[in-house]
Amino acid sequence: MATLLRTPAGRRADALVERVGDGPVLVLAAQTEPQAAPASPPPEQTGRALALSDVIAVPSGPGAALIRWAYRLGVPGHAMAAPFRRPQPLRVLATVESPNRGDRAAGTALRAGHFLVHGVRLPISGLDFTGSARPAPGVERVLHSFAWLADLAAAAPRAEATPLAERITALWLDAHREPGKGPAWDVEFAGLRLVAWLVHAPLVLSGNDKRLKSKILAAIADTARWLDKRAPRETAGLGQVAGWAGVVAAGLLLPHGKPRRLFGEAGLVKALGDMVGEDGGVLSRCPAAQLDAIRLLTDLIACYAAVAIAPPPALMVMRELLVPPLLALRHGDGALGSWQGQAAIPADRVNAVIEASGVRTRPLSAVQGWGYQRIKAGDTLVQFDAAPPPRARHARTGCASTLAFELSDGPARVIVNCGGAALAGGQVPARIAQGLRASAAFSTLVLDNANSTAVLLHGQLGKGVETVELERRQIAGRGREATRIEAAHDGYAQRFGLIHQRILTLSGDGTELAGEDILIPTSSKGKRGKIGFAIRFHLGRGVEVQLSGDKRGASLLLPGGRLWQFRLGGDRAGTGEITLSAEDSLWVDGDGRPHATEQLVIEGLALRSGGQFSWLLKKTG
Question: Domain boundaries in the chain?
C-alpha cells in the first residue's frame, strides 16, 4: 500500500455525493475483509465490496422540491397535504415495531425505582428532572433522550410498564414546560427523545389518563416544530443527525406529515454525509457514536415500515456502510476497543445493535477516514490508531491517542487503553476523567509527559497532531506473510522538533508482535540535549506480570492460562540505560466500572537528535 498523508477526519461521505436536481446522490463504497473459511470453503476471495454505485437519491422532481421549499418557509404541513380540509386531530398514526431492544437490567432497575446508568443506581424520586443541578453527562443523556423507554420495554409487558413510563414522563414534562429551555433541549437529546416517544408511543399513550395523554401529544408536536427550526442550524455530527431523524419520524407518524417528511429526508441525508467519512466511520472517531448512529437509523427505518412507506435508499445504504468499521473494533471477546473516551462496550450490546440492523457483513479492512488499522492473525488481533484525533467540531470526548494500540489473544485482552473518560460521573470519578483522555492513558509513546494533542475541557481538543503518515504492507515471514504497519505523527514536532514513528509487525501465525518506536528530528541539524520519554503498555484486566531478573523483559500470564513474553530490544538513543518497570494502571469496563490493573513502562532519556527503541511481544504458551 502506498504511503498516505491523513487529515484528521478523512473525507466526509458527502465528498462522494453529487447533486442531481434537488436530491443528493450517494455513490459510496467500503471494502470489507473476508470471514473465516467455512468447512467447505468457496473459492478464495480477498474482500467483498459493498459498492453502491447506483443512483440512490432522496425523491426529487419539481413537486417534491416545491414542497420542501414551501415547508422550509413555514407553510403548514396540513395546508399542503390536505388543502381546503380541516386539520386532523393530533395522534400517532401507527404502532412501530422496532427490532432494537433495550437493556433488560436497566429496565428491571427502573421497575425497582432506580435509573441504572454506568453501573450506578439513581432513585427516580430523587432525580432533578429540570437539569438545573447538571447531573453527570451519562445520566443527563439517559434522562433527556428517553433512552430508558427501550430498557423498560425490554423488562416488562406493556400493561405493567405503562404506568411507570407515564409517571416518569409526567415528572419530566412538569419540569420542562417551555421548549428550548435548558440542557434537555440540546438538539441531540431532543431528536432522540422525539424518536423514542414515537417508537414507544404505546408505553406513554396507552394509559387511562387522558389529560396526560394530551400533554404528551402536545409535547411531541412542540418538539417536532422546534426541531424543524433548529436541526438545520445544528453543527455536523450525531446531534444534527438525531435532530433530523426526529423531524422525519414526526413526518411519518403525525397527521399531514408528508411535507415535513420530505423536508426532513433531504436534511437527514446531508447530515449523514457530514457526519460519516468515506469508509463509513463517523468523523468523531467514537465507537459509541457509531453504535448510536446504527441504532437510530434502525429505529427510523422501522418508522417507515410502520406506515408502509419505503425509506429513501440512502438511509439503507448509510446503515450498511456504518457497520463494517464498527466490526473492525471488536476484539476476540466481541466487545469494542477503548477509543476516544469510550470504554470496552460489551459484546452483547454490540451484537444486539448489529442483529437489529439486519446488516450481515465483515469488518472493515481498507481503512480510510475511520483511521483504526486492524490486523488479525490466528487468535491474535491488533487495533492501531493510525490517524489524527477528530477535529474540534466533531470531537465528543476527544483523546490524545495517536499511535496507541490494543492487542487481544482470543477472548483475553493483553494490551489495552484505559478508556472510560466519557463515563465520568458514574463509577469513574469525574476528577480523573481528564487524565483518562491524556496520551499517558493509552499504549503509546509520550514525550516529556506531554500530550501529543492538547486535551482541553468539556471533551475538546487543541493543537497537536495534524497529519499521520501511514504505510501498510505484507512482508515475507516464517510460513505465512507477516503484516507490517508504519505510521508517524507530527504532534511533537513544533514543541520538541521530533516526529514519533511507530512500526508494528504481526507475524503470520499471530505469535509475535514486534514494535519499534522511533524519534525522528524534523530538521537535518537536529537539536542538542536530551528529553524524557515513556512508552506505556497498559495491561488487560487479570493479566499477571512478572519482571525478568535483568529488568529487560516480563512474563504476562493471561486469565485463561496463555503466556506472553515481553522483551525490550536494543535502543539507539545514545543516552545510556533505559528502564523497564511495572506500574499501577486502571481499565474501565463497558459498564463503567474501573478496575485496578498494571502497565509496563519503558522510560529513559532520548537525544533531541532522535532515537530508536525496539520491543517484542511473543506468545509462548
Answer: 57-310, 372-619
Q: How many CB atoms lie within 10 A of CB 491?
A: 28
- Residue 429 is predicted with a pLDDT of 86
**In the beta sheet, which residues pair with residue 482?**
475
Place of cell 509527559: 449
Is residue 34 within 8 A of residue 40, CB to CB? The reply is no
pLDDT band at 594 (very low <50, low <70, confident <90, very high): very high
Tell me what pLDDT residue 576 has.
Answer: 61
pLDDT exceeds 60 at position 198:
yes
The H-or-E segment that residue 530 falls in is strand 530-539
CB 605 within 8 A of CB 579: no
Backbone angles phi, psi at 608, to 5 degrees: -65, -15
Report whether 606 contacts 567 (CB < 8 A). Answer: no
Task: Note whether 278 and 28 are within 8 A (CB).
Answer: yes
CB atoms within 10 A of CB 182: 14
For residue 605, what are the β-bridge partners? 532
Residue pair 592/138 in contact (Cβ under 8 Å)? The answer is yes
For the chain, what is the mean pLDDT? Answer: 87
The helix or strand, by DSSP H or E, that contains position 316, with its residue range, turns out to be: helix 313-328
CB neighbours (10 Å) of residue 66? 14
User: Which range, of 51-60, 358-367, 457-466, 476-485, averages the lowest pLDDT?
Assistant: 51-60
Q: Residue 181: exposed, middle, or buried by beta-carbon count in 10 A (0-12, 13-18, 19+)?
A: exposed
Predicted confidence (pLDDT) at residue 153 exceeds the cutoff of 70: yes
CB neighbour list of residue 211: distance below 8 Å, 6 or more residues apart: none
Least Cα distance to 162 among 213, 122, 118, 120 occurs for 213
- What was the pLDDT predicted at 58? 61
pLDDT of residue 509: 94
Neighbour count for residue 218 (Cβ, 10 Å): 12
Q: Which CATH number fits domain 372-619: 2.70.98.70, 3.40.50.450, 1.10.3720.10, 2.70.20.10?
A: 2.70.98.70
459 near 392, Cβ under 8 Å? no
Cα atoms in the 13 Å half-sphere on the side-chain side of 141: 17
- The secondary element (H helix, E strand) that includes residue 380 is strand 380-385
Query: d(Cα 136, Cα 445) in Å, to the nearest integer?
Result: 31
| Packing angle, helices 158-175 and 210-230, rounded to 10 | 60
The CB density around residue 537, as the number of other CB atoms within 10 Å, is: 26
Tell me the pLDDT tens digit for each residue of 45-97. Answer: 223 233 333 334 565 666 777 776 777 777 776 667 767 677 788 999 999 99
Q: Mean pLDDT throughout 586-604? A: 95
CA distance 597 to 445: 19
Rounded to whole angstroms, the Cα distance separating 381 from 383 reads: 7
pLDDT, one tens digit per residue, over 506-530 is 999 999 999 999 999 998 766 788 9
Average pLDDT score over residue span 382-390: 96
Helix (H) / strand (E) containing 614: strand 611-619
Q: Which residues contact 409 (CB under 8 A, 6 or more apart)?
A: 332, 379, 380, 510, 558, 562, 564, 619
- Separation of alpha carbons 46 and 435, rounded Å: 41
Mean pLDDT in residue range 20-39: 42
Mean of pLDDT values over 142-149? 95
Q: Are 302 and 253 in contact (CB under 8 A)?
A: no
